[in-house]
Amino acid sequence: MIVKEIDLFKGIDPEVMEEIANICSEEEYTKDTVLFEKGEEAASLYILEQGALNLVINRERGLDRVHTQ
C-alpha cells in the first residue's frame, strides 16, 4: 500500500502503520470530479499517487485556480 512509502508516515510503529494501511482504500476519479469543497468537514485524507489535480478557490472576485502536478 502506498501509505507505507510516504515520508509523512516514516518512523511510525509498524503495528500502527499496519492499522493505518488497513483503513486506507485506493480510489480512481475521473476528470472534473470534485473531491471536497471549502468549509466541508474533513472525512478523508487524499494522497495523489499519479496524475494531476486542480485546486480551485471560489472567491468573491472570481475563481482562483492553482494547478498542481
Task: Supply database-style keywords.
69 residues, alpha+beta, two-stranded antiparallel sheet, 1 helix
Give a structural overview.
- This protein has 69 residues and is α+β, with helices and mostly antiparallel strands.
- It has one domain (2-68).
- It is built from one helix and two strands; from the N terminus they run αββ.
- The mean pLDDT is 84.
- Provide the gyration radius in Å: 15 Å
What summary fits the major beta sheet? 2 strands, antiparallel
Order of helices and strands: HEE
Q: For the residues shown, what is the average pLDDT?
A: 84
What is this structure's SSE topology?
Blueprint: H1 14-23, E1 53-59, E2 62-68
Antiparallel strand pairs: 1-2
What's this, in brief?
With 69 residues, this protein is α+β, with helices and mostly antiparallel strands.
